[in-house]
């Protein structure tokens, strides 16, 4: 019980850190579009996080995202803070070691995001669509999650991504989201 409570509390502080702009950013902390467009694998030019492929199976459609893997407490705390751009094929994944309820906020996040909560069965449990930039209000999962996927605000609706759709990524917990 204490571990679940601590995990849930950690989710409440997902945006408590800031960082210096990366060396390849301009004065405003933005990465020039050609640099982002040429980034196909390896690490993201702003966050330095590993990029993995995450797909969402929605009916007969499969939506593939080049996804920053936020798999450390530090990267999960920073999330998309201070970021001013996100492409339609980009995402950020916050995997959990243990299934637990998750809570996010938009502190220091200027972009509207769709916050997609992935349940223990590897399917979307709920989506917090168009999360309000800079909001300190908590955005909650509906039950325990094994991951959270963030995409550009409004994109889930545009692509027809809904609760019940399957989310697949390398390293997903075995037996939960097999490819």
Key descriptive features of the protein:
179 residues; alpha+beta; Jelly Rolls; seven-stranded mixed sheet; two-stranded antiparallel ribbon; 4 helices; 15% helix; 32% strand; globular; disordered N terminus
* Separation of the first and last Cα atoms: 32 Å
- CATH homologous superfamily, by name? Protein of unknown function DUF192
- DSSP E strands, number: 9
CATH class, anyone? Mainly Beta
| Assembly category | single chain
- Spatial arrangement of strands, main beta sheet: 6-5-8-3-2-1-9
Percentage of residues in DSSP E strands: 25-35%
Helix and strand run: HHEEHEEEEEEHE
Helix content: 10-25%
Tell me the CATH architecture: Sandwich
Based on Cα principal axes, name the global outline: globular
User: What's the helix count?
Assistant: 4
Largest sheet: 7 strands, mixed
Structure description:
The chain is α+β, with helices and mostly antiparallel strands and 179 residues long. It has a single domain (2-15, 45-168), classed as Jelly Rolls. It has four helices and nine strands, in the order ααββαββββββαβ. The strands form two sheets. Strands 6-5-8-3-2-1-9 form a seven-stranded mixed sheet. It has a two-stranded antiparallel sheet with strand order 4-7. The protein is globular and about 35 Å long. Mean pLDDT is 81; it is low at 1-40 and 175-179.
């Amino acid at each position: 019980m204490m571990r679940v409570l601590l995990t849930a509390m950690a989710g409440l502080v997902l945006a408590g850190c800031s960082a210096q702009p990366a060396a390849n950013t301009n004065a405003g902390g933005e990465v020039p579009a050609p640099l982002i467009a040429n980034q196909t694998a390896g690490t993201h030019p702003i966050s330095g996080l590993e990029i993995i492929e995450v797909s969402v199976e929605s009916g007969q459609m499969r939506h593939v995202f080049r996804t920053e893997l936020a798999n450390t407490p530090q990267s999960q705390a920073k999330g998309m803070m201070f970021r001013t751009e996100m492409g339609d094929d980009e995402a950020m994944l916050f995997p959990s070691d243990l299934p637990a309820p998750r809570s996010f906020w938009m502190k220091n996040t200027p972009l509207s995001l769709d916050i997609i909560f992935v349940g223990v069965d590897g399917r979307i449990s709920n989506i917090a669509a168009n999360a309000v930039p800079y909001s300190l209000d908590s955005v909650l999962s509906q039950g325990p999650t094994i991951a959270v996927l963030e995409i550009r605000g409004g994109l889930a609706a545009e692509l027809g991504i809904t609760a019940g759709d399957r989310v697949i990524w390398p390293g997903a917990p075995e037996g939960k989201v097999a490819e």
